[in-house]
Amino acid sequence: MKLLILSVVATTTMMATTLIDDAKTAGLKAIPGNTKAIEKLTSNPNNPTTATKVELGKMLYFEPRLSKSGLISCNTCHNLAIGGTDGMSAAIGHKWTSNPHGLSSPTVYNAVFYNQQFWDGRSPHLEEQAQGPIQAGPEMAAPKDFVTGVVNSMPEYVKMFQKAYGKNVQITFEKVADTIAVFERTLVTPSRYDNFLNGNKKALSATEQKGLKTFIDKGCTTCHNDIALGGTMQPFGVVAPYKHMNVGDFKGDANGLVRVPTLRNITETAPYFHNGQIATLPEAIKEMGRIQLGITLTDEETASIESFLKALDGKKPVIVYPMLPTSNPSTPKVDVVNP
Amino acid sequence: MKLLILSVVATTTMMATTLIDDAKTAGLKAIPGNTKAIEKLTSNPNNPTTATKVELGKMLYFEPRLSKSGLISCNTCHNLAIGGTDGMSAAIGHKWTSNPHGLSSPTVYNAVFYNQQFWDGRSPHLEEQAQGPIQAGPEMAAPKDFVTGVVNSMPEYVKMFQKAYGKNVQITFEKVADTIAVFERTLVTPSRYDNFLNGNKKALSATEQKGLKTFIDKGCTTCHNDIALGGTMQPFGVVAPYKHMNVGDFKGDANGLVRVPTLRNITETAPYFHNGQIATLPEAIKEMGRIQLGITLTDEETASIESFLKALDGKKPVIVYPMLPTSNPSTPKVDVVNP
User: Which residues of chain B does A85 touch, with a Cβ-Cβ cutoff of 8 Å?
Assistant: First the structure.
């Protein structure tokens, strides 16, 4: 009996070793197991991460006065309390405007690991991405000079920018976005899956390991790979068109490619797909099989993949809610009703 | 020289002692100097404050899914990052609706010390107050059964309610509001002014002490008294009508009385007055003198009072941003565009 158990354990361990190898061969990569390595991996060499920049970036991320109304912050649509998104099929912004293309807000958690930002991948990194929604009419609707006017009007912000970038810093719109991006680069959520890939063979249960194997064997890793399990531009509807393609007018980039969303914390980021028309994970998994791989996934296979996906739920960074500087008469006035 | 300095110090100390006595005679009261005493003072005997209730209440305070749209939380209009309010003259809520009476969002910080809640004082305590904006059409617009449906759909919430109130707890709408209120009762901000009233005679500068004396001598404490320096129902426009009374249709309660706002953290809660038509503190101070006391405050007197008011800026509690439970298919669907 003892021998049998030992033998089963040995077999399981061997299988786990093979699975880790298979996962790596399929292009999957772990978030590193230690903080220093994560910092190195996520820091922008052109704008290195420092504690001051992160703190300042966090303040700006939660700062509603960067929007023309004074009501909407980055966190409104990428709410760090609910998976870094808003739970909506299409984002709602300034003056309650729906996203004109019917697009949902992608999660900001682990977005640092994407090769491209936005659903059409039009932005190469978070620094540029952060400039978009602040200005976009249906989102925060704030002109660049409004944003710099707000930040420069409050001495506490000016001092923090000086501390972060040096006494002679010019607080430009781009600098504001850069700083938000530095904060976003810290929004990384290591999971049991990462522990597994990093060598802890017991970090995933047998069921979850089986799910990972199904995930690889069925071909999901063709698009969902690397650290983000997503983040590259890929054809969408390879074998058959997405059943809700007619909701919204989004057709991908100029070549019809769509930025693959991360699968990390996928349990928290429903509704799914670019237009948020899929409510549940099983439905999303089956639809992906149908339109991308040309296969019909059985209920059992779907459940197996789902059990793996749930193991991607990660540990969120602790975020102390920032206390923001006080507006003063020189702070540009918000315009709520008539922008 | 030494004797002169000692004599000046002695005189200043004596003056401070007299001023503290005068302040107490005028009805001013400090936030107690120790945490235990604050907890005792702010806890509701019918629903005593516990750590679990505070944590749960914080989650619900930041919970956008309590609103019909899934976008608006208590924190949207009572933003703890910017003085517990929204910086707007009139609140904006569900579907970008302005407050129909042109009323601004009062700060939630130190609201526990009010005798009445809402501008017309229609609610006796935070437990009842919290029920209002969640349901109000222009605010969060959520029917009671929607709210209980949301909370009961997520096992993490159910478990926390059980931990907070016992295994057999019924998660009613009223219980949700009660729990939010428990969190709000912790939003207390002790200041240097409190240290001064509690006996630290050096906690306020000579200028600030002079400001406090002016504040008392001119009669401001007639309405701005007790711990909140506000929070009771008082006549508004005693001597002359408020110059912006025509903005919005608010006329106070049935007897024309208006709930006096707290002066704590007043630097952070502009624009001022119930309809947010006064942009700066000096203007607010002078208008109060004119319409409530029938006096014309000089620039010097106004600056003196302002210097005291600035000493009411308090120390905010540290708030770790909550990570909220995950929605699931049984969670009532949010309705953004067509409520």
Answer: none
Token pair recorded at residue A204:
């995933």
Could you report the per-residue pLDDT of A67-80, keeping only the tens digit for each? 999 999 999 999 99
User: Model ipTM?
Assistant: 0.95
Between CA A148 and CA A142 the distance in angstroms is 10
Taking alpha carbons only, the member of A226, A290, A289 closest to residue A262 is: A226
**Contact: A86, B64; criterion CB under 8 Å:** yes
**pLDDT, tens digit, 9 for 90 and up, residues B313-334:** 999 999 999 999 999 999 998 7
What CATH number has the domain spanning A42-184? 1.10.760.10
B87–A70 CB contact, under 8 Å: yes
Distance from CA of B108 to the nearest CA of A (A): 14
Q: Which secondary structure element, helix H or strand E, spans residue B253, and what is its range?
A: none
* Contact with chain B for residue A95, Cβ under 8 A: yes
Q: Does domain B43-184 sit in CATH 1.10.3720.10?
A: no
B139 is catalytic: yes
Q: Does A282 touch chain B (CB under 8 A)?
A: no
Number of CB atoms found within 10 A of residue A107's CB: 24
pTM attached to this predicted model: 0.96
Which tokens is B24 given? 């107490």
Contacts of B29 (CB under 8 A, 6+ apart): B197, B225, B226, B227
B324:A82 CB<8 A: yes
Q: Where in chain A is the domain with CATH 1.10.760.10?
A: 19-36+190-310, 42-184
